[in-house]
Backbone:
């Protein structure tokens, strides 16, 4: 897509577009696509809800599944699309990780050993990020 963007920007001079108009439209299109992808993903929505209360969360896949079960409606946890096991949750995280990052939520996964997941809300206010976090489902300062 970089080549496509490069050629379109280069062609702006001969097209009936203002300079920068293509990049602005293309960026808006990407933002809208990311927003739609996040809106349609129950796990991504649950992570957004979880991270609205904290700047950082850290724990195992099992603890994350339990934490997410606590922030979504019970009807959603009964859907066949909702992950029932930590391994399925891991696959769903892989699928939505890039979209979450674009929205300001970074997901880091440690392989081997305890397999910790660290989720950081990069848009959290600096004061909140230094004081409120969650580790293994527990708030800590």
Residues:
């Amino acid at each position: 897509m970089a080549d496509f963007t490069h050629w379109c920007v280069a062609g702006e001079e001969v097209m009936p577009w203002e300079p920068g108009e293509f990049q602005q439209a293309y960026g808006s299109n990407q933002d809208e696509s990311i927003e739609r992808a996040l809106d349609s993903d129950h796990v991504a929505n649950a992570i957004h809800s979880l991270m609205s209360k904290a700047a950082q969360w850290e724990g195992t896949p099992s603890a994350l599944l339990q934490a997410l079960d606590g922030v979504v409606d019970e009807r959603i946890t009964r859907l066949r699309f909702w992950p029932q096991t930590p391994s399925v949750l891991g696959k769903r995280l892989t699928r939505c990780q890039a979209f979450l990052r674009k929205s300001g939520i970074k997901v880091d996964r440690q392989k081997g050993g305890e397999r910790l997941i660290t989720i950081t809300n990069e848009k959290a206010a600096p004061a909140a990020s230094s004081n409120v976090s969650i580790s293994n489902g527990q708030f800590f300062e």
